[in-house]
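note to self: the first set is below, dont mix up w the second
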Amino acid sequence: MEQPPPLSPEDAVYMEQHSLGQPQPVKIFGILHIVFGAFGSISLIWTAIVLAMGNPAQKLTPPTPELTAQFESQEALQAQMMPITLVSTVIAIIVTVLIITAGIKLLKKRASGLKWSNRYAWTSLAVKGISLVLTLLYTLPVVADATEASLPASMPISPRQLIMITTVLGTLLSCIYPILTLALLNRPKIKSWFAAQAD
């Protein structure tokens, strides 16, 4: 009887993944999705507390004329930023729900885990692009105008330049995880594994 051709190393790994369970990237991203989603939830809870009750640090810090003036300046800035803060909070809720749902489905080995991970990744990248534009067009002028007067003129760069640089770098760094999610979970053999799972 004719023997089947030997498996290539890649096919052997693929068969092993089917027999042992989910591929390692699926498990790793499932865990990371849940962890990052948990951090996002904590951040949202803190934001809700601050919006509803104000900054708790103000109530814990003994009042002085200098601190009072600083807190009043911060409150005025927060009032100016409130529309952006509310929009950012709603968007953060959506992204957090997507990443937690994706993480749960990945850990449960559901075929829809890939779809939810892709939804999270593309939504996250789109949100980061929109946030960058809003920050440069709206947040940057407001924050720069509020801080320029309180900073020494001898600074090598202006507050506007500093905020612009940190915003762009921060946005680029935050894009790494969703890009890795798309790149590693959409490899052909990983997608084949998802296709063989129950939804």
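second set (the one i keep forgetting abt)
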Amino acid sequence: MLNLRIRLYEGALVELEGHRGPLTAVQCPQHPAQFEISGYLYDVCGRSKLPRSKAPKILMVYSPGCRLLKTA
């Protein structure tokens, strides 16, 4: 299995484990290397600031040119 590293960026569309549809990553103004996604904090590499059992895993980060056509 290939393990790719992710990099979050302002406005990134991401999918979190247990959440419906893509969510938007918002860069924290006080800490530019931190991003808030659905109330959870992640670093630029997608690692949670909480213990693994508390924060959902990032399943996918859509590429910058990706357009969402339809949600289920």
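remember for set 2: Residues 13-61 form one domain.
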